[in-house]
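Summary for the lay section of the report: proteins are chains of building blocks that fold into shapes. Here we show the chain for Reverse transcriptase domain-containing protein and then a coded description of the shape we predicted for it.
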Amino acid sequence: MSSRRGNAISNIVVDNVIVEGVPNIREAVFKHFENHFRSVNIARPNIANLQFKFISDADAYYLERPFAEDEVKQAVWECDSLKSPGPDGVNFGFIKELWMDVKNDFMRFLLEFYSNNRLVKGSNCTFIVLIPKVANPRKMSDFRPISLVGCMYKILDDILIANEAVDDAKKRKKELLLFKVDFEKVYDSVDWKYLESVMGKMGFSYKWRRWIMTCVSSATASVLVNGSPMM
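The coded shape description reads as follows.
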């Protein structure tokens, strides 16, 4: 509770004006993220004549193989049991404890995504928590936005992206460098249609590209201001 009180926002400076009061602070935070996530029409480099490293047929096939129960369980067990839950209110400690009872629900969720390129409504919702980067935060730039994702989507994300890359590197005994893009910066600069075009140029299959585009285009976020979510 003390940590939560310490992270409470009593006022914030916007355009050199001190904003106070819960409704006004919530409005200021909402406008900040609304402007931050808004798509900007800018000229993107033409990739038609660029040469990209091309994914092999074997790798493309590997990416599209059906999700196996053992790799789903591995993804669950690799998640922090005590990490704060997302909008679903469930952490992985709870899921691990009841795995034998809930595993079929997770497998049905993943099969629906695999077969029909569809996510269950609400599964791709995220809470954005504002964590102070300095002792006495006054501006939005003094906060670090941390995303709390629901358990089902977290598992899908781990299986679809990170685990595939790490597992493949281990099997091939290849060196691997992974980096995580800052949540704030990625939405500043990435155009999803442009990303899809680049993946197409690299030889990723239509099925795989549809999966990725479903993940990035269906996401919704609610910012937590003093513990209360706002769209």
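Put simply, here is one thing we learned. The radius of gyration is 20 Å.
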